[in-house]
């Protein structure tokens, strides 16, 4: 039976312009998932932002612990699932769930946002709360230095883009400065958004998963035909 990863909930929740149908975004996600589950082919989701997020996750959690004064935070390794969802929250304690998002650079960090910048993350946290029984969650954007290997890739990319054959020290210094944040006080490098449990939203998520199952099952039983044109 189809279950949706919490990190992917945002892809199924957009409403279609046509009443009673799944959105194009939702269908595209389910079609890709069907191909992955049937044949093992998946879309390459590599990006600098994803690579950095994985590489600095522990650093971001540590920074959040230092700045937020919400008790000890350690990386959660426990996997959760229910009838509809699966997921592994970043941080889990007795009172709340916390998920860290490590911004690639200062331009993607929500310095002045007052509401959750990406609604997909609201759904992700709501799903984590549904799985763990917590009623409060926090989305924590963290600004930590980018790992050296990713910075080096960016230095090479910018050199290539500018058609610089030889090392340009100005280019290097500019890129490195864009990915180093020690000059910013720690308290300004963690931006949190509190998200409280909402049963109505969770019910909508569960209902959408039910709708997705019908479409997903139809894909698994679809006969793939080669059409000559």
What does this protein look like?
This protein has 229 residues and is an alpha/beta fold. Helices cover 44% and strands 13% of the residues. The chain has helices at residues 9-12, 24-39, 48-55, 57-68, 119-132, 148-161, 169-178, 199-220, and strands at residues 4-5, 80-81, 85-87, 91-92, 97-102, 136-142, 190-196.
Keywords summarizing the entry:
44% helix, alpha/beta, 4-stranded mixed sheet, 3-stranded mixed sheet, 7 strands, 13% strand, 229 residues, disordered C terminus
The share of residues in extended strands comes to 5-15%
Range of helix content: 40-55%
Oligomeric nature of the chains: single chain
Cα-atom radius of gyration: 21 Å
Biggest beta sheet summary: 4 strands, mixed
**Overall pLDDT score:** 93
- Put simply, the count of helices is 8
In N-to-C order, the SSE pattern is: EHHHHEEEEHEHHEH
Widest β-sheet, arrangement of strands: 4-5-6-7
Précis, in short:
The chain is an alpha/beta fold and 229 residues long.
Q: How are the SSEs placed, and which strands pair?
A:
Layout: E1 4-5, H1 9-12, H2 24-39, H3 48-55, H4 57-68, E2 80-81, E3 85-87, E4 91-92, E5 97-102, H5 119-132, E6 136-142, H6 148-161, H7 169-178, E7 190-196, H8 199-220
Parallel strand pairs: 1-3, 5-6
Antiparallel strand pairs: 2-3, 4-5, 6-7
Helix pairs in contact: 2-8, 6-7
């Amino acid at each position: 039976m189809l279950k949706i990863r919490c990190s992917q909930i945002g892809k199924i929740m957009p409403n279609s312009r046509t009443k009673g149908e799944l959105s194009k975004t939702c269908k595209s996600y389910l079609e890709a998932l069907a191909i992955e589950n049937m044949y093992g082919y998946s879309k390459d989701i590599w990006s600098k932002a994803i690579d950095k997020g994985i590489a600095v996750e522990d650093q971001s959690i540590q920074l959040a612990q230092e700045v937020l004064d919400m008790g000890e935070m350690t990386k959660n390794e426990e996997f959760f699932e229910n009838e509809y969802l699966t997921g592994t929250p970043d941080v889990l304690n007795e009172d709340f769930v916390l998920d860290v998002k490590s911004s690639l650079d200062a331009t993607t960090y929500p310095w002045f946002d007052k509401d959750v910048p990406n609604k997909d993350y609201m759904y992700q946290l709501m799903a984590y709360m549904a799985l763990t029984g917590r009623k409060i969650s926090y989305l924590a954007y963290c600004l930590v230095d980018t790992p050296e290997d990713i910075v080096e890739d960016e230095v090479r990319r910018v050199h290539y883009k500018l058609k610089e054959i030889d090392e340009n020290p100005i280019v290097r210094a500019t890129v490195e400065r864009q990915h180093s944040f020690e000059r910013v006080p720690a308290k300004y490098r963690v931006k949190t958004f509190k998200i409280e449990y909402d049963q109505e939203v969770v019910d909508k998520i569960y209902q959408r998963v039910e709708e997705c199952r019908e479409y997903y099952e139809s894909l698994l039983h679809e006969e793939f035909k080669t059409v000559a044109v």
